[in-house]
Protein backbone atom coordinates (compact mmCIF):
# COMPACT_ATOMS: atom_id res chain seq x y z
CA UNK A 1 0.00 0.00 0.00
CA UNK A 2 1.26 3.44 -0.89
CA UNK A 3 1.82 6.13 1.70
CA UNK A 4 -0.27 9.30 1.41
CA UNK A 5 2.66 11.32 0.04
CA UNK A 6 3.38 8.70 -2.61
CA UNK A 7 -0.27 8.61 -3.66
CA UNK A 8 -0.42 12.37 -4.13
CA UNK A 9 2.89 12.40 -5.98
CA UNK A 10 1.74 9.68 -8.40
CA UNK A 11 -1.72 11.27 -8.73
CA UNK A 12 -0.09 14.47 -10.00
CA UNK A 13 0.65 12.66 -13.27
CA UNK A 14 -3.07 12.34 -14.10
CA UNK A 15 -4.35 15.17 -16.31
CA UNK A 16 -7.78 15.81 -14.80
CA UNK A 17 -9.00 16.23 -11.26
CA UNK A 18 -11.48 13.32 -11.49
CA UNK A 19 -8.71 10.92 -12.55
CA UNK A 20 -6.47 12.12 -9.72
CA UNK A 21 -9.25 11.71 -7.16
CA UNK A 22 -10.08 8.24 -8.48
CA UNK A 23 -6.42 7.21 -8.30
CA UNK A 24 -6.10 8.46 -4.74
CA UNK A 25 -9.36 6.77 -3.70
CA UNK A 26 -8.45 3.47 -5.32
CA UNK A 27 -4.95 3.34 -3.86
CA UNK A 28 -5.97 4.47 -0.40
CA UNK A 29 -8.52 1.72 0.21
CA UNK A 30 -7.51 -1.90 -0.11
CA UNK A 31 -10.39 -4.27 -0.71
CA UNK A 32 -10.13 -7.90 -1.67
CA UNK A 33 -13.84 -8.12 -2.49
CA UNK A 34 -14.57 -6.49 -5.89
CA UNK A 35 -18.32 -6.28 -5.20
CA UNK A 36 -17.65 -4.32 -2.04
CA UNK A 37 -15.26 -2.03 -3.92
CA UNK A 38 -17.86 -1.36 -6.61
CA UNK A 39 -20.61 -0.64 -4.09
CA UNK A 40 -18.45 1.62 -1.92
CA UNK A 41 -18.39 4.53 -4.39
CA UNK A 42 -20.67 5.79 -7.16
CA UNK A 43 -19.96 5.32 -10.84
CA UNK A 44 -17.78 7.94 -12.46
CA UNK A 45 -19.09 9.94 -15.42
CA UNK A 46 -16.73 8.02 -17.72
CA UNK A 47 -18.23 4.70 -16.58
CA UNK A 48 -21.76 6.01 -17.21
CA UNK A 49 -20.72 7.11 -20.73
CA UNK A 50 -19.15 3.70 -21.43
CA UNK A 51 -22.34 1.90 -20.38
CA UNK A 52 -24.48 4.27 -22.45
CA UNK A 53 -22.32 3.56 -25.52
CA UNK A 54 -22.66 -0.20 -24.96
CA UNK A 55 -26.45 0.09 -24.69
CA UNK A 56 -26.61 2.17 -27.88
CA UNK A 57 -24.48 -0.36 -29.77
CA UNK A 58 -26.73 -3.21 -28.62
CA UNK A 59 -29.81 -1.30 -29.76
CA UNK A 60 -28.37 -0.67 -33.22
CA UNK A 61 -27.03 -4.22 -33.56
CA UNK A 62 -30.42 -5.85 -34.11
CA UNK A 63 -31.88 -3.00 -36.14
CA UNK A 64 -30.98 -4.52 -39.52
CA UNK A 65 -32.77 -7.79 -38.74
CA UNK A 66 -35.83 -5.95 -37.48
CA UNK A 67 -36.02 -3.82 -40.63
CA UNK A 68 -35.63 -6.93 -42.81
CA UNK A 69 -38.61 -8.58 -41.13
CA UNK A 70 -40.80 -5.49 -41.67
CA UNK A 71 -39.79 -5.11 -45.32
CA UNK A 72 -39.90 -8.83 -46.26
CA UNK A 73 -43.35 -8.69 -47.89
CA UNK A 74 -42.50 -5.62 -49.95
CA UNK A 75 -39.18 -7.07 -51.07
CA UNK A 76 -40.71 -10.40 -52.06
CA UNK A 77 -43.49 -8.67 -54.00
CA UNK A 78 -41.16 -6.18 -55.72
CA UNK A 79 -38.47 -8.71 -56.66
CA UNK A 80 -40.82 -11.65 -57.27
CA UNK A 81 -39.16 -13.88 -54.65
CA UNK A 82 -40.63 -17.01 -53.11
CA UNK A 83 -40.49 -17.42 -49.29
CA UNK A 84 -37.59 -19.88 -49.62
CA UNK A 85 -35.65 -17.33 -51.67
CA UNK A 86 -36.32 -14.70 -49.02
CA UNK A 87 -34.93 -17.00 -46.37
CA UNK A 88 -31.75 -17.47 -48.38
CA UNK A 89 -31.46 -13.73 -48.98
CA UNK A 90 -31.87 -12.83 -45.31
CA UNK A 91 -29.55 -15.55 -44.06
CA UNK A 92 -26.87 -14.38 -46.50
CA UNK A 93 -27.35 -10.79 -45.35
CA UNK A 94 -27.08 -11.86 -41.70
CA UNK A 95 -23.77 -13.64 -42.22
CA UNK A 96 -22.19 -10.64 -43.97
| Count of alpha/pi helices | 6
Average pLDDT metric: 75
| Largest sheet report | none
Tell me the helix content.
Answer: over 70%
Radius of gyration: 25 Å
Q: What distance separates the N and C termini?
A: 50 Å
Q: Total strand count, please? A: 0
Structure description:
Helix 1 packs antiparallel against helix 2 and helix 5 runs antiparallel to helix 6 (about 85-95). It is rod-shaped and about 65 Å long. The model has no long low-confidence stretch (mean pLDDT about 75). It is mostly helical. Helices cover about 75% and strands about 0% of the residues.
What tags apply to this protein structure?
96 residues; mainly alpha; single chain; 0% strand
What does this entry show, briefly?
The protein has helices spanning 4-11, 17-28, 34-39, 45-61, 63-79, 83-95.
Strand and helix map with partners:
Blueprint: H1 4-11, H2 17-28, H3 34-39, H4 45-61, H5 63-79, H6 83-95
Helix pairs in contact: 1-2, 5-6
Amino acid sequence: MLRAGQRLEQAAHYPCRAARETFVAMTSTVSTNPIQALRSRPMSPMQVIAIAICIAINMVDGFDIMIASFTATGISREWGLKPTDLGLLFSAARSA
